[in-house]
Design goal:
single chain; 258 residues; alpha/beta; TIM Barrel; four-stranded parallel beta sheet; two-stranded parallel sheet; isomerase activity; Sugar phosphate isomerase/epimerase
């Protein structure tokens, strides 16, 4: 992610324009990088201008304590307040990785924090979904991690976002893992992976995006699929990659479905 996200901070308006040009219909911005468009009225106007829906809002925090810090809780509650203006969007919770030390205790704390944040959002009528990731410093990247954390989620207030690239990067088969926890899925992230060392532009890697999409179609999945391309090309020219991914979905992925 370019500059840990700072490179494109405040460029959400431009992103919306490119996403619309690529043929996508929804966006999932990261809450703390939205710039002026964190204002719900400005955001609604910009979304309408480009014909794009707010599919979800990523809430990314470190969450390293036994409970939220005062600052973390404030950020979470501000994100929830924004989503009260967009009741059809999902609150996508994700931990910023900082290391696998004190793993068992920190996984337990993470589950409790995610459940707490999700409960507060749920009480406001907002759907929630937890998003694991796979850097080597992440505390939920392996099959063992998934079992502990996913099975600790309060299913009444949050679902799970399988990110197919992060799953394969953690040495798991994406479709197998999705079938195992199908009941939790309420949001999906796509990226491609080639293992050299990690990401590649969509369609050029080893993730069976056609097979996964076919399965989602077969089970009548009705939520969003967010394309989150993290290949090296995306760091150099994110506009090009967004347009490429839109074309690949239209010309390669969709025609391959039954």
């Amino acid at each position: 992610m370019a500059g840990n996200g700072e490179t494109h901070k405040g460029r959400l308006g431009h992103m919306l324009e490119i996403i619309a040009k690529a043929g996508f219909t929804g966006i999932q911005p990261i809450f703390t990088w939205m710039g002026d468009l964190v204002d719900p009225d400005l955001l609604a106007a910009k979304l309408q201008e480009n014909g794009i829906e707010l599919a979800a809002l990523a809430l990314a925090q470190e969450w390293n304590g036994k409970e939220e810090t005062v600052e973390e809780r404030t950020i979470s509650d501000n994100a929830i307040a924004l989503l009260e203006h967009f009741p059809n969007a999902v609150l996508n919770t994700v931990q910023i990785p900082t290391g696998r030390h004190d793993l068992e205790a920190r996984q337990k704390s993470l589950v409790n924090i995610v459940n707490s944040v999700s409960q507060r959002a749920h009480d406001k009528g907002i759907a929630c979904s937890y998003h694991p990731n796979s850097p080597h410093s992440s505390i939920i990247r392996t099959a063992e991690d998934y079992k502990i954390v996913l099975e600790g989620l309060n299913e009444k207030v949050t679902g799970w976002t399988p990110d197919v690239g992060h799953i394969i990067n953690g040495n798991m088969d994406p479709l197998t893992k999705m079938k195992e926890y199908q009941h939790l899925i309420n949001h999906v992230h796509y990226k491609d992976w080639n293992g050299t060392p990690e990401w590649t532009i969509m369609g050029n890697g080893k993730v069976d995006l056609v097979g996964i999409t076919q399965w989602l179609k077969d089970i009548n999945y009705s939520g969003w699929i967010i394309c989150e391309d993290e290949g090296p090309e995306a760091l150099e020219d994110p506009d090009y990659v967004t347009l490429h991914d839109g074309n690949w979905i239209k010309n390669d992925l969709i025609p391959a479905l039954k």
